[in-house]
């Protein structure tokens, strides 16, 4: 190799290596200061894409956990309101039992009992109308309740006779079972039919609402949409009143569906947990109403006592449904929190800097930088040595 003063190739090589070392040191310091090894797309394009996708999953799941927690709060508000309704109904049981006894006079004493009973019904109405969560009514109602059907007709009432020749009323869950209730020799009144339905063990409860309609409710919530609605069979065989016509049935509009959306940010990882709550009032407590009941006579009090006990059972059933939904939300929240933990770990493996490795790299680059500078200095001194040949 000839000696030349035109190009200092040795210095150029030393400078190039020093630049590479400085670039590596800068990247190392950036990873150490940020804690991430993905500070730009150039660092690892595939890894950046994976990390961003995992971050999106984590963000969606974190919000879903919040959704589940807020939903539990709403259902707990509803459960608390229903707990108070149960307390009121228990007081109503005491009043009805007292009024049913002949030891109470028909005058001012029963009137006083009925006044308190009326106040209880008014308070239940108030609870149903005024219980809110985050500015919206908890017992809103207004949407179709596919699990409840009301039979209406001229003169339908508790003492109205059922035409014995009609035989039965069929109540069907679409795509499911048909429940046939005999109205022949036994059920000669609507009241007897109500007792028959309530005692059937089929998960149905019947009562009269304040409008005089016979309301049948699926307490097991098997009917949740138009494809599974609770209906009265096409050959309706219940006849009431004096119009000599079969009664007609239609789904009521006193339910509201509370939906909780849970997702990991993808279509496949999304689901909805729904809870159906009926509009709550003294005329409709999960299908049982007290609107037409009073305590003004012993017989009225006995009828009211039956209705109150049915209402207590239906409020308890509704609270059971709410409890099941709260347990499901708790389970969903636990699963989501586990997913967040695992996905965070996966994202951390992809994007987080290995601090111990980077400290090692920094020490190495710092040493190489010092030796590179020293080598570049020595290479430049070689050119100065060649000038001595010209002296």
Short characterization:
The chain is α+β, with helices and mostly antiparallel strands.
Number of helices: 6
> What is the terminal-to-terminal distance?
22 Å
CATH class annotation of the largest domain: Mainly Alpha
Rg computed from alpha carbons, rounded to a whole number of angstroms: 39 Å
Give the overall pLDDT as a whole number: 79
Q: Estimate the strand proportion.
A: 15-25%
**CATH topology annotation of the largest domain:** f41 fragment of flagellin, N-terminal domain
Low-confidence stretches: 154-161
Helix proportion: 40-55%
Q: What is the H level of CATH, i.e. the homologous superfamily of the largest domain? A: f41 fragment of flagellin, N-terminal domain
Encode the helix/strand succession as letters.
Answer: HHHEEEEEHEEEEEHH
* Number of self-contained structural domains: 2
Question: What would your notes on this structure say?
Answer:
A hairpin with an 8-residue loop joins strand 9 and strand 10. The protein is an alpha+beta fold and 391 residues long. The protein has six helices and ten strands. It has two domains: 36-139 and 280-352, Up-down Bundle (f41 fragment of flagellin, N-terminal domain); 140-279. The protein has helices spanning 9-34, 45-99, 108-130, 190-198, 298-351, 355-386; strands at 132-133, 136-137, 143-152, 168-173, 178-182, 204-208, 214-218, 230-232, 248-262, 271-278. Strands 6-7-3-9-10 form a five-stranded antiparallel sheet. The protein has a three-stranded antiparallel sheet with strand order 5-4-8, covered by helices on one side. Helices cover 51% and strands 16% of the residues.
């Amino acid at each position: 190799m000839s000696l030349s003063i035109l190009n200092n190739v040795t210095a150029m090589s030393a400078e190039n290596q020093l630049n590479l070392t400085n670039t590596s040191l800068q990247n190392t310091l950036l990873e150490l200061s940020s804690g991430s090894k993905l500070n730009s797309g150039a660092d690892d394009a595939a890894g950046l894409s994976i990390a961003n996708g995992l971050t999106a999953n984590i963000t969606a799941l974190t919000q879903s956990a919040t959704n589940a927690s807020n939903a539990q709060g709403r259902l707990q508000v509803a459960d608390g309101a229903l707990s108070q309704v149960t307390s009121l109904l228990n007081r109503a049981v005491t009043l009805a039992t007292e009024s049913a006894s002949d030891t109470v006079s028909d005058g001012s004493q029963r009137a006083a009992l009925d006044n308190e009973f009326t106040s209880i019904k008014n308070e239940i109405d108030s609870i149903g109308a005024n219980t809110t969560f985050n500015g919206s009514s908890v017992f809103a109602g207004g949407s179709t309740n596919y699990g409840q059907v009301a039979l209406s007709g001229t003169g339908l009432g508790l003492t109205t006779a059922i035409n014995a020749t009609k035989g039965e009323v069929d109540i069907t869950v679409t795509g499911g079972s048909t429940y046939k209730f005999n109205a022949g020799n036994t059920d000669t009144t609507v009241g007897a039919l109500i007792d028959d339905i309530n005692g059937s063990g089929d998960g149905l409860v019947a009562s009269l609402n304040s409008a005089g309609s016979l309301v049948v409710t699926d307490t097991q919530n098997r009917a949740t949409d138009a494809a599974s609605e609770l209906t009265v069979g096409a050959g309706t065989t219940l006849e009431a009143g004096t119009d000599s016509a079969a009664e007609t049935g239609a789904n009521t509009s006193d339910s509201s569906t509370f939906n909780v959306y849970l997702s990991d940010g993808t279509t496949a990882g999304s689901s909805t947990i729904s809870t159906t709550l009926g509009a709550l009032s003294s005329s409709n407590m999960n299908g049982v109403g007290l609107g037409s009941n009073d305590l003004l006579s012993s017989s009225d009090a006995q009828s009211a006592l039956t209705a109150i006990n049915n209402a207590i059972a239906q409020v308890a059933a509704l609270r059971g449904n709410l409890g099941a939904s709260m347990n499901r939300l708790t389970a969903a929240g636990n699963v989501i929190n586990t997913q967040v933990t695992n996905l965070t770990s996966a994202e951390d493996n992809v994007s987080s800097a290995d601090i111990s490795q980077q400290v090692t790299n920094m020490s190495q680059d710092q040493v190489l930088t010092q030796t590179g500078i020293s080598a570049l200095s020595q290479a430049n001194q070689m050119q100065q040595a060649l000038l001595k040949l010209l002296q």
